Amino acid sequence: MSPVKPASWFKSFGLALLLSVAWSTSAYALDAEQRRSRALLEELCGRCHAVRTTGHSPNPLAPAFRTFGEKLYDTDMVARLEEGITTIHPDMPTFRFSRREAAAAVNYLRSIQKNR
Ligand code: HEC
Where are the domains of the chain? Predict the structure, then answer.
């Protein structure tokens, strides 16, 4: 009813904040697309998973993204993100990535793996 939507305003503000923090504090070389993916993953997955190269997952059962390692190469993670995250694990409400977003997200995830 009301023309003002606090929830969506807050969401864009939060995303803008995440993006600016990502840009100003990036300690290592991520390209612009990897930084966008990190912001997207932090928004969607960050309440359970550690998305960056440091820090613990808020949900102790959720593996930190930087520990995925071979999983990102052995399975077709791009297709799994595109099909919807419920094919990865049931705890997560369905969220589908576009092909471009999925490819960029996997690119970011590969870039933060500890041994690569
Ligand atoms: C509500 C909490 C929650 C959210 C939000 C969440 N996850 Fe998870 N995730 C988990 C838990 C818990 C596990 C480990 C248990 C499992 O595999 O079911 C997990 C495991 C995973 C795995 C490993 C699965 C495997 O095949 O070994 C991947 C990949 C993953 N999550 C990706 C994501 C991505 C990408 C997002 C954001 C789009 C996300 N998760 C959001 C809780 C979450």
Answer: 6-111
Distance from Cα 48 to the centre of ligand 1, integer Å: 8
Distance 3 CA to ligand 1 centre (A): 35
pTM above 0.70, yes or no: yes
What pLDDT, on the 0 to 100 scale, is given for residue 11?
66
Distance CA 37, CA 17 (A): 14
Instruction: Work out which ligand 1 atom sits closest to the CA atom of 75.
Output: 26
Closest Cα to atom 42 of ligand 1 = 62
- Residue 38's contacts (CB-CB under 8 Å, 6 or more residues apart) are 22, 30, 51, 52, 108
pLDDT in tens, 62-109: 999 999 888 887 768 888 888 876 656 667 667 788 889 999 999 999
Dist. CA 27 → ligand 1 center (Å):
26
